[in-house]
Amino acid sequence: MADEQVSLTIDGYELTVPKGTLLIRAAEQLQITIPRFCDHPLLEPVAACRQCLVEIEGQRKPMTSCSTPAADGMVVRTHLTSEVAREGQEAQLEFLLINHPLDCPMCDKGGECPLQDQTMAHGPGASRFIEYKRRYEKPVPISPLVGLDRERCVLCARCTRFSQEISGDPFIELFERGALQQVAIYEDEPYHSYFSGNIVQICPVGALTSKDYRFGARPFDLRAVDGICNQCSGGCNLRIDVRNGQIERQLARTNMATNEMWISDRCRHAYQFVGHPTRLVEPAARNDLGSVEPASWTVAVRAAAGRLSAALEAGGPAAVGVLTGGNLTDEDAYAASRFARDVLGTDNVDFRRTVRTGEEWPLLRAIAGTTGPTFSAVEHAGVVVLVGLDPEEEAPSLYLRLRKAVNKHGQRIVTIGPSLGSITDVAWRWIRTAPGGEARILRALSGRGDTPREGSDLATVASALSEAVEAAADGPGVVVLAGERLAQSPGGLAAAVELATAGDGRAFAWIPRKAGARGAVEAGLLPGLLPGGRALGDPGPVAGAWTRVPQEAGLDTRGMLRAAADGHLRALYLIGVDPIRDFEDTALAQAALDRVDTVIVQDLLTTDTTRYADVILPAAAPQERVGSFTTWEGRRQAFPQVVPPAQLCVEDWDILRQVSRALGSDLGWETAMDVRREAAPLMAAEHSQTARLSELRSEPPPDSPRSDDGHLSVEAVPALLGRGSMLRGADALLETARAVEAWVHPDDAQRAGVADGDTVVIAGPDGRIELPVHITDRVAAGCVRLPQNAMDDPLGVLVDPQADEAGAVRVRLQARETASADA
After folding, report:
1. Gyration radius of the chain over CA positions
2. What global pTM score does this model have?
3. CA 613 to chain centre
4. For residue 132, with 0-12 CB atoms within 10 Å meaning exposed, 13-18 middle and 19 or more buried, which class applies?
5. Alpha carbon 362 to its chain's center
6. Closest CA to 197 of 183, 213, 184
7. Rounded to whole angstroms, how far apart are CA atoms 23 and 52?
């Protein structure tokens, strides 16, 4: 039984632990640290290094504590009380040092090396080895991010076990045998992994080193600061090492509730944008001659206030729109929400890149200010349904949890959609749909749609859902995880919620991509939505904290850009957003920026939109400020300032405070803590997530008959390593990005006359993109999967500019030669 207990004695101390507990873990409960190299709490034991020897009464020889489970009545003596254990550990260290180079002064691990520390604490005082040590060519570049110094390796197999057990990238392995054994990679399979930095961090010696950090600093020169990742919504905990005001490296910090002990390479290496030459570091404003020139903060703030005042006088609050991205901290998101409503008087505010079906608003209102299923709940669910979500590309820390759940708990993962992406090797069932067809499948699984045909995959999945709910003890048996892309599918979000609320033992979570997306929801950065999920007509405590609240719901992102292009919107205030690359319709975004009278850009870096700016207000990066991010679970995590702001950059909330004062409004803030204290109670919901979600009901989705006119529907999936501004300067990291390709089904490729690897033209009504083609059955027929944010041209060039409303993107697939001839 899982709760069976055993009692044992370690170094004279008695303790009781669950049956199956390893001796090395039992000793830790007594604050006894047994030396080890290969042992890791999240990896399976292999007893490779033999360093953790202990003496067990009744055994003929010392035993490895990392692989020996505790037994009832066992008497254990560690190196603290046993001469046999101490001598064994000393001999093993001497053995490990036979070929290990004594290059600690130049090794990156020097000063934080377990081998170094344990040799001093437990090793022999002198070496008896006088022969030449083995030497290898160094470093071996096993990836653009990782270098290998083979002569330092102690063959602990931590790196190979992580790759096999945790990330599922078994491209690194132990080769040869005996004294010749070494870590290597296959010549025809380079080690390209989204999680390769973890093998560097868990390496107990300096065998694996980060190329970004190699010879960059010494551990004793660094100041370590706790941080929160700003690259995705998983809330990964970081240790950020700083030297002379510059970030030298970012490491995973242990938090078993979120990222456990792992982070993605993007989380680890994507900090170079903080000091990139394209940072906006000084304010600028358009002068009387029409050119944008550097200006003081006073001049720039007054210019922004003057232009906003002119727009308000000419067209009232409805003439101003505020667009934010999903990268703002919770405090900055709240400040933007209050600035738009309380200062400008407009409800034209939105943080979303794309708005197609209008079904996202009720869902986001329901989850605002609440907490949903946690990482742990997802891990221990019997069945997880993924829809509109490719977890490795969009939520890497969640992807690792799902892999762990499958491998350790036998979880069944069901993915619904037009393509089977990164979850391929652990998915239990893939139910194919055309883009926009997810709702029909979800309704069938929840019992509100067509009855699944007996023996079909759909019927098998429905049966598994029922079994998981019945078997659930603590927590949900079924968890439905919906990515933000599902909002583009008519009826998809409501159907996903309905499946997750069809009975007890189920849960729902919305998984956005960006770190600030959930905080933007909590802050009410959507038209008609106030902090905490409150509607404009029922503001509650918001009315008491703010001077005014708009009475009518404003425009969403598409509505604002269309109003600007039509000349009805006179000013756009853009905070951390680049409409030209971010918005789904590039032509509309360009038309809006061309036509609108005033564009105010408040951002970190230059973008395609910056050239349209009339006023530029440089913002501080997340590492340069105090703030917090809310995870997709609803877990709010605060972080401190790591480095000082670059030159004249100011925190976003402070910029908005200054512009507000120039407009005659005092928001009453002097520090970020003032914003946090005001925001926290208002961003908390007065309703439960379950109660609000249960109110959502799906309707039968409209029929979308497949056309035989040769067009394909587009599924746009963002890549973890794309062309986003937050990856600027991370050149080595971007070298590990996956190929930028168009995925098509073999039937569609045959119809278009293209072969795998050919360069093809994906042609929309008024634009085209050229990409290599990857022919695979991991995408449904009639669909082409494109990397949304990794192409030279923005995906928006494929959208029909004549369409009145946004809808499914339809394109033609042609060989480049054929397309050139047609042109």
Report:
1. 29
2. 0.94
3. 30
4. exposed
5. 24
6. 213
7. 10
- And the tokens for 815? 């060989």
Both tokens of 54, joined, read 């202990």
Start-to-end C-alpha separation, the chain: 71
Question: How many other CB atoms sit within 10 Å of the CB of residue 345?
Answer: 17
Please enumerate, as own/partner, the contacts of 116-123 that have beta carbons within 8 Å and a separation of 24 or more.
118/35, 118/37, 118/51, 118/93, 119/93, 121/35, 122/35, 122/79, 122/86, 122/89, 122/90, 122/93, 123/90, 123/93, 123/94, 123/97
Q: What is the pLDDT of residue 665?
A: 96
Count the Cβ atoms, other than its own, within 10 Å of residue 549. Answer: 18
CA distance 796 to 585: 4
Q: Which of the 8 DSSP states describes residue 162?
A: I
Residues 367-396 as b/e (b if ≥16 CB within 10 A, e otherwise) read bbbbebbbbebbbbbbbbbbbbbbbbbbbb
Q: What does residue 286 show for φ and ψ, rounded to 5 degrees?
A: -75, 130
Contacts with 367 (C-beta within 8 Å, 6 or more apart), sequence order: 510, 521, 533, 634, 689, 692, 693
3-state helix, strand, coil in the chain (%, to 5): 30, 20, 45
Beta bridge partners of 744: 775, 784
- Structural element, H or E, at residue 675: helix 672-683
Cα separation, 88 vs 125, in Å, equals 15
Supply the pLDDT for residue 142.
85
Tell the residue number behind the tokens 């849960």, with chain if given. Answer: 507
Identity (one letter) of the amino acid at 203? C
3-state secondary structure string across 547-576: CCCCCCCCCCHHHHHHHHHCCCCCEEEEEC
- The full set of domains in the chain, from first to last, is 5-96 (3.10.20.740), 133-275 (3.30.70.20), 284-356+517-525+550-668 (3.40.50.740), 364-511 (3.40.228.10), 711-822 (2.40.40.20)
Q: How far apart are CA 506 and CA 478, in angstroms?
A: 5
Mean pLDDT by 10 residues, the chain (823 residues): 84 95 97 95 93 95 96 96 94 89 90 93 83 83 89 89 90 67 69 91 94 91 96 96 96 97 97 95 93 96 98 96 95 98 97 80 92 95 96 96 96 96 92 92 88 88 93 90 92 93 92 96 96 94 95 94 96 96 90 97 96 97 96 96 96 98 96 96 87 81 63 92 92 93 94 93 88 95 92 84 63 75 58
Tokens 């001497």 correspond to 94
Q: How far is CA 142 from CA 22, 184, 188, 189, 430, in A?
A: 33, 8, 12, 10, 33
* Backbone dihedral region for residue 746 (phi beyond 0: left; psi -120 to 50: alpha; all else: beta): alpha
Element housing 733 (H / E): helix 731-734
| Beta-strand relationship, 292-294 and 140-141 | unpaired
d(CA 248, CA 228): 16
d(CA 24, CA 78): 10
Give the integer Cα–Cα distance in Å for 721 and 145: 14
Four-point Cα dihedral 782, 786, 792, 793, nearest 10: 60
Joined together, the tokens standing for residue 455 give: 């023996």
